[in-house]
Backbone:
């Protein structure tokens, strides 16, 4: 893979993974717009692993507290003490992850992947779920912190996350939308969404990473490592800027971007069929 393609791919994934604008849609569009051959699943997984390490580094304190709470949970239960808030959050994260695991298996088995990656699907998903994010952000009161999310609320967020299997939806965007509808403040909605991405990325990365290792393709492995490191750096910057932004501002700029991108994609798909993007 040319180095410039590695940089573009890593930048696209690293910047868009945790912003509510759909990383999968942008990864699909990169080869369509540039004319480069599709980077393949191995590169997709490499950039996802890079972003996984970035989010784990950024939220290392929270993750450490969750692991510690899980470690001490048996002792607390045997002593008749209530569950710690951190362990309750772990349970909520598990509950929110289960729907997409089940749905992801079903989609992989029974849905035509080529059809799902069509430009029309990406365009409509970009528009519709961007509008839903705007509505949720505007009408919802900001009254809850992350620890106030109930088990039912976590399951609702998990059900919304299933929609992220549609390219263009944005996993980050749809989970933040659900959290905002539940009244969770913007920063904590983003925090829960990003931490929730960890088990999903681990599951996908482990499976495809093993396939990459078994291929014994040293050139491919080297390219994947390069892209992964670059994606890690871009993602770390993107996460930091997003959390600072959400202290004082709304999701509106991301919605505007989605509206413009979705409109362009649909115009190309329906109004300019001769353009070589399909």
Residues:
């Amino acid at each position: 893979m040319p180095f410039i393609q590695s940089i573009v791919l890593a930048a696209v994934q690293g910047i868009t993974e945790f912003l509510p604008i759909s990383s999968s849609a942008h990864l699909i569009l990169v080869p369509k717009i540039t004319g480069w051959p599709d980077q393949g699943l191995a590169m997709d997984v490499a950039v996802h692993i890079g972003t996984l390490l970035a989010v784990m580094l950024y939220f290392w304190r929270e993750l450490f507290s969750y692991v510690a709470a899980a470690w001490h949970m048996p002792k607390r239960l045997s002593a008749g003490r209530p569950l710690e808030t951190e362990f309750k959050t772990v349970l909520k994260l598990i509950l929110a992850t289960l729907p997409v695991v089940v749905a992801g298996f079903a989609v992989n088995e029974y849905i035509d992947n080529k059809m799902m990656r069509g430009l029309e699907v990406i365009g409509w998903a970009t528009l519709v779920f961007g509008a839903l994010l705007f509505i949720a952000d505007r009408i919802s009161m900001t009254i809850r912190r992350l620890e106030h999310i109930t088990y039912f609320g976590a399951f609702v967020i998990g059900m919304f996350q299933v929609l992220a299997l549609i390219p263009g939806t944005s996993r980050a965007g749809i989970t933040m939308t659900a959290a905002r509808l539940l009244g969770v403040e913007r920063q904590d909605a983003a925090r829960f969404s990003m931490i929730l991405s960890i088990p999903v990325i681990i599951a996908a990365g482990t499976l495809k990473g093993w396939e990459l290792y078994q291929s014994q393709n040293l050139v491919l492995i080297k390219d994947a490592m390069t892209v992964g490191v670059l994606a890690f750096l871009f993602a770390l910057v993107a996460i930091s800027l997003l959390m600072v932004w959400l202290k004082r501002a709304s999701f509106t700029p991301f919605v505007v971007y989605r509206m413009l991108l979705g409109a362009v994609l649909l115009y190309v798909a329906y109004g300019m069929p001769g353009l070589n993007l399909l």
User: Anything to note?
Assistant: The CA atoms of residues 43 and 252 lie 31 Å apart. The chain has a mean pLDDT of 85. The chain is about 80% helix and 0% strand. The two ends are 22 Å apart (CA to CA).
